[in-house]
Amino acid sequence: MRHTHYIYIGLATLAMASCGDFNDKLDGYCEDDYKPKDVKSIKYELTSSDYAMLSTLSGDNNIKANQYFSSADDAHTYIPQWLAYTYPTADDGSSVTVTYWQKGGASHYLAPLGKATTYTMVAGDDASDMDALLKRVKPEAAKDDIVLVSPGGDGTMAAYQYSGSAWRTFTNTTTDITVLPQSVYNSLGSTFVEDAGSVIPTFLKTTYPYASNDDTKTVIYYYNKYKDIGARQYTLEGGEWTLTTLSEKVVTEKTSAPFVLTNGAWTYDPSVTITLPYVKQDPTSKVFYQAATDWVWDNIDTPAGVAKGQGYVSKWGNNDYYTGSSAYNSCVDWTPKNAKAQNAAAFEGKADEEIIAFMQQNLTKVWAEVLKTQYPDARPVDGIEVIYTVNFTATMPNTVAYTIQYKVTGNAEFTYVEGSMKQK
Questions:
Q1: Which of 107-121, 357-371, 399-413 bottoms out in mean pLDDT, i.e. has the lowest?
Q2: H-run or E-run covering 207
Q3: How many CB atoms are closer than 10 A to CB 289?
Q4: What is the DSSP annotation of 291-319?
Q5: How far apart are CA 177 and CA 116, in angstroms?
Q6: Exposed (0-12), middle (13-18) or buried (19+): which is 131, by Cβ within 10 Å?
Q7: Between the CA of residue 188 and those of 87, 98, 185, 200, 362, what are the distances in Å?
Q8: Can you spell out the DSSP letters for 101-142?
Q9: How confident is the model at residue 115 (pLDDT cuts 50, 70, 90)?
Q10: What pLDDT was estimated at residue 106?
């Protein structure tokens, strides 16, 4: 290893000396062309040690203690400090989407659980009319109050919320809500759940073995010996139940936000720039282009009833001539003769300019669908125009650098910005 190290130093020294001798003799030489670029495009979720470092960098000890940010403003202010510390070699144009925990507002549907109480039914209680029962035992209830009702034994009832005039089952339109059954506490030998992060995912996996990806469940439980009530919202992702919202002492939500490096400084910027390197098998480019080709196969070729290789998608399945996307070459191939070779029937009688225009128009539509799958956390922001810019390379057959932009118009909804696709 030491021998290799010395060779490297020697070569570097020779190279530096050579530059001094020959730079003025190289036509078109630009020093910046020879500087390594570290343009990052990363998705990262903060860990416990990251929150500790954020406390140190920001001087806010609550971040380490709470393992969440108190507000969006705090996150947007402190995370850039952590990014500068963590990625000191990153170059301008880098983007990092950071996932972190943040305190939820009072409007969050789990917020009323902070003052929830319990009621254990006794002999003579009529379970068939919970509204009348709870009005009798909770006469001082205020609007939005929640009561967790237990019939005793191994049974579960449910959580009830007071609307101001009646008690109704506590529900939410975006998630199924269930109360952790008494049998789980019995199996733990406890009256509360000490390790909810382990117990509840196991409960969900056992109770909902046939759940589908993106299914959401919220489980209400006792989290301490005083029977204080907490809730955890989970979403099934890749076969695993992933925690997205937590309510115990306070409501905290998992949040993702993009940060970009511009002029040497990291800042919160909901707009994102995606650079697809023209390097064969580049991981960023490969995933993006493959998603486009997969969409064409699923939505164009398959409905047409053609076999792979007989329509717009090649027989290898890693490039298409509906958009020109090529995961194999990490570029967009708008070469007319290649498109004709792939799907002669579709392009018969069309001029080269028409073929290129056809693929370009399709790309603007299909890539909106790709962005939806690749950036599911994209959200519009009040008062800010959120733009996703994609830089890519096209071959026609000459190589041309292109850029295209999409505006975020809804949750993971992208709309092509007319006229934005152009040569750089």
A1: 107-121
A2: helix 196-207
A3: 29
A4: HHHHHHIIIIIHHHTPPTTSSSB-TTSSB
A5: 15
A6: middle
A7: 44, 36, 5, 12, 57
A8: EEEPPTTSTTGGGGG-EEEE--TT--TT-HHHHHHHH-TT--
A9: confident
A10: 82
Q: Give the 3-state secondary structure of residue 398.
A: coil
pTM given for the model = 0.63
pLDDT-derived band at 269, boundaries 50, 70, 90:
confident
Q: What are phi and psi of 347, to 5 degrees?
A: -110, 10
Which residues are within 8 A (CB) of 412 and not within 5 positions of it... i.e. 6 or more apart?
A: 372, 375, 376, 377, 378, 379
Among 203-212, 229-238, 374-383, which is the least confidently predicted range? Answer: 374-383
State residue 218's pLDDT score: 95
Which uninterrupted H or E stretch holds 354? helix 352-374
Q: What residues are paired with 240 via a beta bridge?
A: 237
Residue 413 backbone phi and psi in degrees, to 5? -115, 125
Instruction: Centre a 10 Å sphere on the Cβ of residue 18 and count the other Cβ atoms it contains.
Output: 10
Note the pLDDT of residue 105: 85
The 10s digit of each residue's pLDDT in 13-62 is 434 433 444 334 344 445 555 455 889 989 999 999 999 999 999 999 99
Instruction: Kindly report whether the peptide bond that precedes residue 397 is cis, defined as omega within 30 degrees of 0.
Output: yes
The residue whose two tokens read 């919970």 is 130
Radius of gyration, CA atoms only, the chain? 28
Mean pLDDT of 361-370: 98
- Report yes or no: 134 and 148 within 8 Å, Cβ to Cβ: no
What are φ and ψ of residue 251, in 5° steps? -90, 125
Q: Which of 161, 157, 167, 170 is nearest to 127 (CA)?
A: 157
Query: Would you say residue 389 has pLDDT above 90?
Result: yes
93 pLDDT above the threshold of 70: yes
Residue with tokens 């806010």: 60
Task: Give the residue with greater pLDDT, 287 vs 384.
Answer: 287
Q: Which residues contact 87 (CB under 8 A, 6 or more apart)?
A: 40, 94, 96, 261
In whole angstroms, give the CA distance from residue 344 to residue 77: 55
Which residue has 């996307």 as its token pair? 325
Q: Distance between CA atoms of 235 and 91, rounded to whole angstroms?
A: 35
Packing angle, helices 48-58 and 72-86, rounded to 10: 100
